[in-house]
Predict the 3D structure of the following.
Amino acid sequence: NAGVTQTPKFRVLKTGQSMTLLCAQDMNHEYMYWYRQDPGMGLRLIHYSVGEGTTAKGEVPDGYNVSRLKKQNFLLGLESAAPSQTSVYFCASNDFYEQYFGPGTRLTVT
Amino acid sequence: GQQVMQIPQYQHVQEGEDFTTYCNSSTTLSNIQWYKQRPGGHPVFLIQLVKSGEVKKQKRLTFQFGEAKKNSSLHITATQTTDVGTYFCAGEGGSEKLVFGKGTKLTVNP
């Protein structure tokens, strides 16, 4: 099993550009999450999903959109990137217990 | 909303010394989880505590959940260089999502 994978690993965007981060899991988990991690801020929840076709807002959802068209995939979109969205993005999935995290995407917005 | 405070933010110890990080929630938790993130890595699940007053041990690591289920601690006995990383607590208050503390970054001087 690959577990949780994220694409891409690194990306540099210019202000105003858009992009989509892809998260995939092969553990048949119902729940999936997108976090951002900034120095000294811990992990902050952006959006999450409790099943295929569902999404919900987390703590810091502004500027992001998500979709869960297939159970194994959770996409995070930035429509118009801003420097404040420079961060490391982690995807995670779980069933009823621990969360499994992907390796992260390091995004820089200039 | 639910908040999880974690102290200290940083801790530097000499190898062989003990280390403790503390976690406090603004609300009663249904369970608390602990994660470790190595430098440059992603968070990895360590343990989950569910019962009031619960104590669990993993080799040199001791985890406690408070009687009121609002606080928790992680204690490492005789630290080793392999313990280096950031330790996060994450509380679940009954919803499908975890609220993470900001983490304690542990450095160990050999």
